[in-house]
Amino acid sequence: MTVTAGLFSHVGLLYSGDTEYLDGTVPYILEGLKLGRPVAVAVPGRNLALIEAALGDSAAEVELIDMTEAGRNPGRILPGVLLAFADHRPGPVRIIGEPIWAGRSALEYPACAQHEALINFAFGDRELSILCPYDRDRLEDDVLADAERTHPTLSGTGGDRPSAGYAPDAVVEKYNLPLPEPRMADAFRFDLARLAAVRSFAQDRAEEYGLALERVEDLVLAVAELSANSVLHGSGHGVVRVWREEDYVLCEVIDEGTLSDPLAGRRPASPGQIGGRGLVLVNQVADLVRQYLRPGSTVTRIYFRV
């Protein structure tokens, strides 16, 4: 992948405590408003309340988004938060996005790190600024090291500096790993003639594993999209597996196609585009999406909280 330099800015803000957090975010917001730029703040609820209080009356001019809801699935943040905000406003915008916080699980983190890396490839040469806060006190050293790899510029109490470790491609690949095998799963092989049967299989298994009815419908929709992609754009056949782990019902689709675009599912289809919407929809309805890509095979695992 290629990062296009220019007017796009992606800065990692390394902060410690509420005062540093507000010192790093509020002036950035106010400067954007003074320049007449639309501003969005997508951070976890507690930090959102801190910023809103500090902004006072200016908070009414900012789009405030609770990242724990809008970005619970990291694969939803680019299409559903960042691009959704930027694409519907003319000219440059400013966004604060905090996709990684101390409450994130180890299960979710790889998709978070890949998201931060892929931001650098998603916006091309657009005039756009994104600031991503990282809590130095509460996040692990490995997470902070990844922040250096995914942000070309780092900011903190000492000001801005270029990141010597910037390597977003390496982070995408670092977390492109085989997913742990389930202890037990129900499996179903499908091809074009059995696409309708895939839906029934997924519905029956999800209901058996205790998924709420409205979430069963979302899971079946996601499975239908993934299996159709396997038939139309992959090898023409595949395997779907369903099982339960603790608080999740999981579904996995395995096929012999190669997904070559790491931004697939994280970038909305353009108007008039044929196809390209299935993976975006999957990210929209699932609580988490993990993928393992290798030549000749794509594994997509989706999680639905029970």
From TrEMBL:
GO molecular function: protein serine/threonine kinase activity
Pfam families in the record: HATPase_c_2, MEDS
Highest taxon, organism lineage: Bacteria
Organism this protein belongs to: Amycolatopsis keratiniphila
Keyword set includes Kinase: yes
Gene3D superfamilies for this protein: Histidine kinase-like ATPase, C-terminal domain (3.30.565.10)
Keyword Chaperone: no
The Histidine kinase/HSP90-like ATPase domain, residue ranges: 189-302
Lineage: Bacteria, Bacillati, Actinomycetota, Actinomycetes, Pseudonocardiales
Keywords tagged on the record: Kinase, Serine/threonine-protein kinase, Transferase
UniProt protein name: Anti-sigma regulatory factor
Domain spans labelled MEDS: 10-152
InterPro entries: Anti-sigma-factor_SerPK (IPR050267), HATPase_C_sf (IPR036890), HATPase_dom (IPR003594), MEDS_domain (IPR025847), RsbA-like_anti_sig (IPR047718)
